[in-house]
Design a protein that fits this description.
The complex is a heterodimer of chains A (about 120) and B (about 170). Chain A is an alpha+beta fold and about 120 residues long. Helices cover about 45% and strands about 25% of the residues of chain A. A 5-stranded antiparallel sheet of chain A has the order 2-1-5-4-3, sandwiched between helices. In chain A, helix 1 (about 5-20) packs antiparallel against helix 3 (about 105-125). Chain B has 5 helices and 7 strands, in the order E-H-E-E-E-H-E-H-E-H-E-H. Chain B is globular. Chain B has helices at about 15-25, 75-80, 100-115, 135-145, 160-174, and strands spanning about 5-10, 30-35, 45-55, 60-65, 85-95, 120-125, 150. Chain B is an alpha/beta fold. The chains are: A alpha+beta (about 120), B alpha/beta (about 170).
């Protein structure tokens, strides 16, 4: 369970992520069982539901990669007509979900999200 | 031979994953993760997407068994998993705080599916809590204008779960 200080640190990190990458329109941290811990967004998405769905998708990704013996699932990408959503582990308990409305921003989204996830993992250690 | 998709749903901790594990002939695919909320008081992990197993009936009929997450915030998975399902098994933990309330929740969410297909109700952990009894469940269903078989079931015992599944399959055939 995260303390309120840890949740604030995560929220601050998400704020920095959105400040550093204008293309990212929303980012959140959820527990692996679907509870929203921190979020930042420029739009008005139902992020509570996205947090829960993120935990389902991440778990499916972990299950699929375990089934195929491909090691840990690094990230899940949902490429859509009007944007991209990525899901990735911060650590074994937390998942980072990021959203962009730019269809051609996958590389940017993954790079910035991965960096943020690694920094959050270090911060929580 | 036609394959039948069955879905196990029901309250958190009622034994959906255990029931599918008891039946399945293949290693069960599950998406259990460590719980971080009040669930921890009852069990360490919780299902967040689905369970999947397979079973063959004595007549060769293949059953595909899906388990849903129990917690209501995962209700979007309930709709996804019910697509193409021919039968529903609702498990209710009788040792939970409000077993009839739990049943009511799943009946409300799955009412349309129950009317389109069919369902059975399995009451678990009756050895730990004997109230409400099966008659109370039958009365409850009758008040909802539903006639569904209600079983007391120990999901750890394969023959218990098989009996319930066979009853459901028999209802589908007739």
């Amino acid at each position: 369970m995260l303390s309120s200080e840890q949740k604030q640190l995560l929220s601050d990190k998400l704020k920095t992520l959105l400040e550093n990458s204008e293309e990212i329109s929303a980012a959140l941290v959820t527990t692996v069982d679907g509870h929203l811990c921190a979020m930042r967004q420029r739009e008005n998405y139902p992020l509570d539901r996205l947090a829960t769905m993120g935990s389902s998708l991440m778990s499916l990704g972990d299950t699929i990669t375990a089934e195929l013996r491909m090691g840990g699932c690094k990230n899940i990408i949902s490429e859509n007509e009007n944007g991209i959503v990525t899901f990735m582990h911060i650590n074994s308990s937390l998942v980072l979900v990021t959203v962009t409305l730019h269809k051609n921003a996958l590389g940017m989204l993954l790079a910035h999200s991965r960096k943020a996830a690694e920094e959050m993992a270090k911060m929580l250690n | 031979m036609k394959e039948i998709k069955l879905v196990f749903t029901g309250s958190m901790g009622a034994g959906k994953t255990t029931a599918i594990s008891a039946l399945s002939e293949i290693p069960v695919i599950n998406t259990d993760v460590n719980a971080t909320d009040e669930v921890i008081a009852r069990k360490a992990t919780t299902t967040v997407a689905l369970d999947y197993g397979e079973m063959t009936l004595p007549d060769g009929q293949k059953l595909r068994l899906y388990g849903t997450p129990g917690q209501e915030r995962f209700a979007y998975m309930w709709k996804i998993l019910m697509q193409g399902a021919l039968g529903l098994i609702i498990l209710v933990d009788n040792a939970g705080e409000n077993p009839l309330g739990d049943l009511d929740l799943y009946l409300k969410h799955f009412r349309e599916d129950i009317e389109k297909t069919t369902a059975v109700i399995g009451i678990t952990r009756m050895d730990l809590a004997n109230k409400p009894n099966l008659a109370a469940y039958n009365d409850f269903l009758r008040n909802k204008n539903l006639q569904l078989p209600v079983f007391s079931v120990d999901v750890r015992r394969k023959h218990n779960v098989v009996m319930m599944v066979q009853a459901l399959v028999a209802m589908l055939e007739y």
